[in-house]
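Record 1 of the preview.
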Amino acid sequence: MTSQKMSAVKKPHAHLKMLRLTAGRVGSLVARRATVALTTNSARMASHEVAQAVDMSQPMYVDRLDTPLPDKPYTDVLTAADKSLKQKEKGPWSQLSQEEKLALYRLAFHQTYPEMKRPSAEWKTVLGGMFIFLGFTGLLVWWQASYVYPPRPRTFDEEWQAKQLQRMLDMKVNPIEGFSAKWDYEKGQWK
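->
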């Protein structure tokens, strides 16, 4: 057989092999997508609530002391009473009552400056958390002193240290400039 005939014979097998590889790739891709879809749906079902994404490119309302005029009003959706009040707002303000002016303010802003400056009770939470942490730390230190650490060595006792001092003096430790140089051996007291 010539080489042309042999390549013609091999080509149908090559196509089948290529078809099997392509089918395998498509099958694995479909399986992966199905797994992701099922996993996402089950996660949504487990949470029972889907959080909506916030479009950060749109204007948002925020009460801040350093931003007196937010990007948009506090109330977006107006009721019929709010709409009629907004129409009344276009006229002279001297005809508006104090309650209507306050209602118009509350449509535009959530809090006033005094409400924003009012101290919060957050310090109580912080102080309570600190006391809980310190109390837990104290319990941990007490537990370690009682059950983890070995008993205090006898060399820390005052009696032991007095005997050790007397022994060092009897041995005349460092008699020129050190410890024993400060002891008067004739009088038996410190110089």
